[in-house]
Design goal:
By secondary structure, the protein is mainly alpha-helical. 54% of the residues lie in helices and 6% in strands. The termini are far apart.
């Protein structure tokens, strides 16, 4: 029962009313679609707690936006469900480090992809190489006798 209620609250947090009131209060020049793509409202599994996260290029802006969105969400939720008792557990804080990009993860992925691509290319080139390199290859594949060999030039 509570999981459905928390999912309902997550939908309220991303509702047009809450988002537009947040945009208006923050005096942002941004559309609903742009704003909604920067926020997530996620119910935590097996709890009655919901996380609201905001991504922005400016960490201070993300913090202010998350706190404002949470406050407006609280007001709208109380208006919709007056008997409900919801509270803000933690306000957003200034992040210590950026959430994205995760440089170490990106470097590790690029390293392994580079290794896989280079190994794949090496095996593909080796598999597709159908040249005859030795006298044995000529005798084996062409079934012809070798009548002469051009020696490799040796530097002295």
């Amino acid at each position: 029962m509570y999981q459905k209620l928390v999912k309902t609250y997550a939908s309220i947090a991303k509702s047009r009313t809450v988002v537009e009131k947040t945009i208006q209060k923050l005096n942002k020049q941004i559309s609903y679609d742009e704003f909604i793509s920067s926020i997530t409202a996620t119910p935590q599994p097996d709890t009655q707690i919901m996380d609201i996260k905001v991504q922005s290029k400016d960490p201070k802006d993300a913090m202010i936006t998350a706190n404002t969105l949470s406050q407006i969400f609280l007001e709208e939720s109380m208006r919709i469900y007056p008997t409900g008792s919801i509270q803000i557990i933690d306000n957003a804080v200034f992040p210590d480090k950026p959430v994205k990009p995760k440089k170490l993860l990106n470097i590790a992925i690029a390293f392994f992809l580079g290794i896989m691509i280079s190994l794949g290319a090496t095996f593909m080139l080796e598999y597709m190489d159908n040249t005859l390199k030795t006298e044995t290859d000529v005798e084996k594949y062409l079934e012809l006798p070798v009548i002469g060999i051009i020696p490799k030039e040796i530097d002295e």
